[in-house]
Amino acid sequence: MTKQRYLTLILVLGSLTAIGPFSIDMYLPGFRAIAESLHTTTENVALSLSSFFIGISAGQLLYGPLLDRFGRKRPLYFGLSLYIIASVGCYFAGSIQMLVGLRFVQAIGSCAAAVASMAMVRDLFPVKDSAKVFSLLILVLSASPLIAPTVGGYVTVSFGWHVIFLILATIAVLITLAVIFILPESYPPDPSYSLAPGPIIGSFLGVLKTPQFYTYCFCGALAFSGLFAYISASPIVFMEGFKVSAKSYGWIFAILSVGFIGSSQVNSRLIKKYKSEQIVNTALIALVVIAVAFLIGAIQGGLGLVGTTAMIFGVLCCVGLIAPNTSALALAPFEKNAGVAASLLGASQMAIGAMVSVGISLFKSKSAVPMASIIIVSSAMALCLVLIGRQFIKTKVAAKQGGMEAH
């Protein structure tokens, strides 16, 4: 594979991965405007974020088997088409109930792109390069937190929040064209793959029983929940708590995203010297320490805007190191069921993200305490999980080696 071809594939796969985050980040600055337009509260508008997380979590489980049965591109076309239709529907939404429902449908469409892109990384690139490829995907993905909230803030002020969803629909159309003309079919349809409930459940259970998968899948999902806690709470904390404007919030969001983006790119260099497991362990310990300091500062009320921003920056730096490595480690054991594994990986992240989002809305607090509380609990659980799971992985490897020696 030539370098130009390599970079082109990364760009298209990264764009697919970015559809979901763009759908989240671009409309965040419009929370207050949406609430005023639809005669509701920002807490109720946050439910449209929760419904998106729920939709993208459930939908990923749907697309996994379809990607393994029909190849990667046909289910991807369906998902992108559904996303475009739902995005146009959001433009015409006249009530918060309608917006919440359409955001769910929009999520069902977008998760086809998320699952397909992860599965195609496993299809197109060697296993040893997976962590590096995921880091490069995050580099493309970084366009979302850097550009989307800033653009969303200006669009909301200048044209109204509805226009944001037309922009999202247009982006999806352009990405669909790139998939048609640039992206290869990386996995041929497999007629032998059954879509009956029994075999599908069997495939999911087979993946879930793999110690390396469940250890790093759920470890990554728990660590990633810190990002979801930030995304869900930040419009309320910054715009309601600290009284920043929609435009200023967009800039703060973009600046904070540098932590996530920068650390994910540092990771592509670190993996040349260290194992992914080592990076995950170190980053998890750092995340727990930062989360403790964040919670103490938030409870005491002495952090202020600058201190809160600094703590979130540290959290995002840690998550940026953890995410690509846990994804690569979780998918490494699979070749035949990469679509199912990728769907479970993404679904677990979004399921926890949905719970975090709902939890943030239930707190009904304008302080950073709920955000910090969720981050410290989830990061501590992730650290415990990886320490325990490592023992199961060693046992599995030892048993496999013993079986091979016996033969």
UniProtKB/TrEMBL annotation:
InterPro entries for this protein: Efflux_drug-R_Bcr/CmlA, MFS, MFS_dom, MFS_trans_sf
Keyword field contains Transmembrane: yes
Membrane topology (UniProt): Multi-pass membrane protein
Tree of life domain: Bacteria
Keyword flag Transmembrane: yes
Transmembrane segments: 45-64, 76-94, 100-121, 133-155, 161-183, 213-237, 249-267, 279-299, 311-332, 344-363, 369-388
Subcellular location, record wording: Cell membrane
Pfam families reported for this sequence: MFS_1
PANTHER family per UniProt: MAJOR FACILITATOR SUPERFAMILY (PTHR23502), POLYAMINE TRANSPORTER 2-RELATED (PTHR23502:SF132)
Designated name of the protein: Multidrug effflux MFS transporter
Organism expressing this protein natively: Mucilaginibacter pankratovii
Lineage of source species: Bacteria, Pseudomonadati, Bacteroidota, Sphingobacteriia, Sphingobacteriales
